[in-house]
Amino acid sequence: MTLQLVTPPAAEPVTLAQAKAYLRAGYDAEDELILQLVRAARERVEAETGRALITRAYREVLDDWAVPGRFVPPGQLRLPMPPLISVGGIAFLDEEDAETEWPADQYAVDMDADPGRIAVRGRSTFPRPPRAVAGIRITFDAGYGADPEDVPSALRDAVLRLTVEGYARREAVGNSPLPLSVQALLAPYRRVRL
């Protein structure tokens, strides 16, 4: 199972102006550093929650449908990085890497579920891929939206607080424990794993 980023987010959930205002940085000399810290903070929030904040495209390559913790027998698969916006397509690869598109009328997409999922229509199980390794390719878009305002305010606030933490300590945002205030902001968005 491999999750590949196809199209990165076009924006960050916090703008440079918002980060500078929060930091009370009225000068431009450290703009690049602040942008880097915002990006690192967004990546940390996404890693902690398992969610995509800003819209982007993914490709997931699977060997089989039975992904532990995500496969719901007999015919549902939860997709990673909620919230799900759309499924661009599902394809099967054969031994010669020839791709065959699975017709969209044979599966349903549930974008309202958290996480989003695909489900088989008219049969009890998913079709077997033609090859045993990396035979399934799913393309999908995920995220809250293309603009910072689309992201829930608690998640944007967590990005701001982690940006401040990184700016104050001048170390990588991912190297330190999460502040309690950030943990509290992220708690409702974390997925519980059983």
Structure commentary:
The chain has 194 residues and is α+β, with helices and mostly antiparallel strands. It has two domains: 2-53 and 147-189, Hypothetical protein yqbg (Orthogonal Bundle); 56-142, no CATH class. 26% of the residues lie in helices and 24% in strands. The chain has four helices and nine strands. It has helices spanning 16-23, 31-49, 153-169, 180-186, and strands at residues 2-7, 56-62, 71-72, 76-78, 84-93, 99-101, 107-110, 117-120, 136-142. The protein has a five-stranded antiparallel beta sheet, with no helix packed on it. Strand 5 (84-93) and strand 6 form a beta hairpin. The longest helix has 19 residues, at 31-49. The protein is elongated and about 60 Å long. It starts with a strand and ends in an 8-residue tail after the last helix. This is Phage gp6-like head-tail connector protein. It comes from Hyphobacterium vulgare.
SSE arrangement:
Elements: E1 2-7, H1 16-23, H2 31-49, E2 56-62, E3 71-72, E4 76-78, E5 84-93, E6 99-101, E7 107-110, E8 117-120, E9 136-142, H3 153-169, H4 180-186
Antiparallel strand pairs: 1-2, 2-9, 3-4, 4-8, 5-6, 5-9, 7-8
Helix pairs in contact: 1-3, 2-3, 3-4
Protein name: Phage gp6-like head-tail connector protein
InterPro entries: Phage_CHP
Organism: Hyphobacterium vulgare
